[in-house]
Write a sequence for this structure.
C-alpha cells in the first residue's frame, strides 16, 4: 500500500507540473512603510524544513523539526534548546505535541513519540502521512494520506482504532486538517470535515466544504488542506483549489461555502477568515456569512504560506523569506520582516506574544511587537 501511495503521489505531482504554464514573476515590492515596530528576540537552526514541518507551540515551548531527522523543543522566550534529538530517520510531517509528548512522522511511515528528549516509542503506519500528528488526551491521532484516521495510546504506541472513509484514488502530498473541538476529533477527509468520537473513531457528523468535480482524477481532488481556523465551535477550512467554508463543529452543520482557488490553509479571528488564492491574491471573508470583506493583489505570485491572524495584523510568509505583516482591517502593509532568504513554506505560529516562523533552510525566527 505504501509503495502504491507513493506512486500515486508522484503521479499527481507530475501531472500538476506538466499542465502548469510558465510561472509569472511577482511585482517588485514597494519600499517598506514599517508602520508597526518589531524586535527579533531570538533565532535558531533545526535543519532544512518544508510546508509539512511547521513549528508547534505548547506550554511555553516551540517544537520544531528538520527534514534530516532532528526534533527539538525550544524555550519560547529565549530560543534555547530545552532538548534536541536526532531520530536517525528523515522526517515527513510534524511536530504535534501536548507540551510533554511530541510526535513526528518519518518518511518511511513511522510514527515516533518523544518525551523529555528521549524516544518513547515508534510504530509503523499503514500509509504515508503529510499531516502533523495531534497529541491530546493521552493519545496520538494521525491522518494518513489515504484519508484514514488512526489513534494510538500516547504511552505505549498501541493502536486503538482506525476510521477509513471512501476516497478518490489519488492523494494529495500536503498537510491536512486534524484538530480537537470540545470532545470531538475533527478531521478533513476528502472534501469534508468529519467529526469523530475520539474514544472509538465512530463518525458523529460529516459536512462537505467541496464535492469532487472535473473530468479526471487530478481535477477531482478537493481534500481539506491545513491549517484551519477555529474560533469556539466555528471551524473554517479550505478544500484544495475548490472552496472555502465554515461549519458549526458542535452540531456538524454547514454555515457557508464559497468557491475559491487557493491551495494553502486559512486562519482568522471572530469576524474574518483570511487566505490566499493560487495566484497570491490575498482575500478576507466575513466569518458569519462568507461574503468577501477585502482583497489585495500586491502579493500575487509570491508563493505565500498560509496566514496567521494575531492581534490587529496578519502574518504571511513568502517564497523569498519575507514575512509580511498586513492589517486585518483592509490588507494594508504594516511591516516586513526578513529571514535567511529561503522560502517560508510552513505556517507562522504564535508563541506567547511572539511570532515564530521556520524557513526552508531551517532557520527559526521569533519577533515580538514593540
Amino acid at each position: 500500500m505504501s509503495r502504491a501511495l507513493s506512486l500515486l503521489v508522484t503521479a499527481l505531482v507530475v501531472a500538476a507540473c506538466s499542465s502548469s504554464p510558465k510561472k509569472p514573476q511577482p511585482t517588485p515590492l514597494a519600499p517598506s512603510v514599517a508602520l508597526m515596530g518589531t524586535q527579533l528576540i531570538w533565532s535558531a537552526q533545526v535543519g532544512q524544513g518544508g510546508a509539512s514541518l511547521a513549528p508547534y507551540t505548547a506550554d511555553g515551548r516551540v517544537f520544531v523539526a528538520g527534514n534530516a531527522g532532528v526534533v527539538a523543543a525550544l524555550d519560547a522566550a529565549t530560543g534555547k534548546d530545552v532538548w534536541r534529538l536526532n531520530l536517525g530517520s528523515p522526517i515527513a510531517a510534524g511536530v504535534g505535541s501536548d507540551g510533554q509528548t511530541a510526535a513526528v512522522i518519518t518518511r518511511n511511515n513511522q510514527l515516533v513519540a518523544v518525551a523529555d528528549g528521549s524516544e518513547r516509542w515508534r510504530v509503523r503506519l499503514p500509509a504515508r502521512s503529510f499531516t502533523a500528528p495531534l497529541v491530546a488526551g493521552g493519545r496520538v491521532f494521525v491522518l494518513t494520506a489515504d484519508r484514514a484516521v488512526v489513534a494510538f495510546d500516547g504511552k505505549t504506541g498501541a493502536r486503538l482504532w482506525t476510521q477509513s472513509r471512501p476516497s478518490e484514488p489519488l492523494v494529495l502530498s500536503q498537510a491536512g486538517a486534524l484538530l480537537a473541538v470540545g470532545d470531538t476529533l475533527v478531521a478533513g477527509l476528502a472534501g469534508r470535515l468529519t467529526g469523530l468520537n475520539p474514544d472509538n473513531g465512530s463518525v458523529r457528523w460529516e459536512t462537505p466544504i467541496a464535492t469532487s468535480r472535473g473530468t479526471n482524477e487530478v481535477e477531482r481532488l478537493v481534500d481539506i488542506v491545513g491549517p484551519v481556523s477555529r474560533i469556539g465551535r466555528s471551524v473554517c477550512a479550505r478544500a484544495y483549489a475548490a472552496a472555502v467554508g465554515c461549519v458549526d463543529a458542535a452540531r456538524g452543520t454547514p454555515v457557508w461555502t464559497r468557491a475559491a482557488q487557493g491551495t494553502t490553509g486559512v486562519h482568522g479571528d471572530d469576524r474574518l477568515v483570511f487566505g490566499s488564492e493560487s495566484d497570491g491574491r490575498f482575500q478576507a471573508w466575513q466569518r458569519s456569512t462568507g461574503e468577501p470583506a477585502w482583497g489585495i493583489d500586491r502579493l500575487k505570485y509570491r508563493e505565500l504560506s498560509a496566514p496567521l491572524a494575531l492581534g490587529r495584523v496578519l502574518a504571511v510568509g513568502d517564497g523569498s523569506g519575507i514575512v509580511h505583516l498586513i492589517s486585518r482591517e483592509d490588507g494594508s502593509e504594516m511591516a516586513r520582516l526578513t529571514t535567511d532568504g529561503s522560502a517560508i513554506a510552513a505556517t507562522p505560529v504564535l508563541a506567547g506574544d511572539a511570532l515564530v516562523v521556520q524557513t526552508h533552510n531551517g532557520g527559526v525566527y521569533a519577533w515580538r511587537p514593540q
Notes: Residues 70 and 192 are 33 Å apart (CA to CA). The longest strand covers residues 38-45. The helical segments are 2-18. The chain has one helix and 32 strands.
